[in-house]
Amino acid sequence: MQATAYTYDPDSRSGQVLLDDGTPVPFDAAAFDAGGLRLLRPGQRVRIETEGSVGAGEGLRITLVTLQTL
Known about the structure:
Mean pLDDT: 91
Helix content: under 10%
Number of strands: 5
Number of helices: 1
Order of helices and strands: EEEHEE
């Protein structure tokens, strides 16, 4: 799935992405570290892997954030 980086805190290595429908979804340090990134800037296109779903009780959880490449 693709998204756009919305916020990123380098100290906690966590932040939020915006899905293409505008829904903000948070990610934690584990998801950021799994992608091997060192930095993320707002506006960058990213690829995410998730568990759960937006409509489910537990919600959508991001398990991986990496840069979108063509």
